[in-house]
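[job 0412] stage=complex_fold ligand=guanosine-5'-triphosphate status=START
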Amino acid sequence: MTSSELARRLSTHDRLAVARAISRVENDREDAGALLRELAPKLGHAYRVGITGPPGAGKSTITSELTKLLRTQGKTVGILAVDPTSPFTGGALLGDRIRMQEVSMDPGVYVRSMATRGSLGGLSAKAKDAADVLDAAGFDFVLFETVGVGQSELDIAKAADTTVVVLVPESGDAVQAMKSGLMEIADFFVVNKSDREGSDQAVRALTTILTFRVTHREDEWIPPVIKAAASKNEGIDRVLAEIEKHRAHLLKTGKLALRRIERERERVHELVEIMLHTDFWTAERSAILERELIRISAHETTSFDVARELTKV
Ligand SMILES: Nc1nc2c(ncn2[C@@H]2O[C@H](COP(=O)(O)OP(=O)(O)OP(=O)(O)O)[C@@H](O)[C@H]2O)c(=O)[nH]1
Ligand SMILES: [Mg+2]
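[job 0412] stage=complex_fold status=DONE, emitting structure tokens
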């Protein structure tokens, strides 16, 4: 099927077309380019939410409960799980799997997991392409679930309109969040598993840390901290309320458009880097390197000069 045929068929009701389109952007950069060109005029409808946090914090549970809540409001939801240990891909308890399956059986929901392992980099770029496919298909919401460790995952979470960081009450999580860069990308925090001890202290600790960052500008958004117990379906309405509040704030201040421009800037940077890396080592350049390596060992030239020469070819 050509890119324009696929683009024409793409809709929330045509799962096969959605699946094919995502496979296409996953598998081949040139095909992805052609398809995304066709999809460009259809972009901008979906609201993108990143759900990230440490392993096991409850991201998948929140994602599926939030999806159910959005469905009761008639919204369609596309879910991208970029997470090797996700219940979408296995390794989950039976109850969690059932929860996921319930959601993915719904015709108004499309669930796709994207593998971190075995991918030769560029996963974050592919996840953004896949989000564009879901957006162009007409989904009202696109939810990204990524585990909040590693730069690539943070890049994906950052590529959302609203980024939710999920933590658990156990002490040290706030400190961990600061170290791993989660603090910087959070639009709000969810202290999940609040059925366990220490959730109020965790909320207080986080709130205290956040107040140090306040700059008292009028249009400043101060990330709220809310509690939830996702597996008991408690607090999910608050999660959605915060998403809507943040969305309203972005719209009112004009920041949504700016944020989307910044997202595209990062995307171009990321793609240029990928293109430079994968396209650089042509047969000709590889042959030059092999030849010059012998000269480097013979002390006739230096790695610096070889690199200079290669980038001029
Ligand atoms: N006690 C309690 N357990 C919860 C809560 N929310 C989720 N869990 C459980 O915590 C475990 C992990 O939940 P997931 O939703 O899979 O967490 P995750 O963050 O997606 O995990 P990874 O994708 O593996 O990083 C599961 O067994 C859930 O049932 C909660 O509010 N309270
Ligand atoms: Mg998960």
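Residues 44-253 form a domain with the Rossmann fold fold (CATH 3.40.50.300).
[job 0412] exit 0
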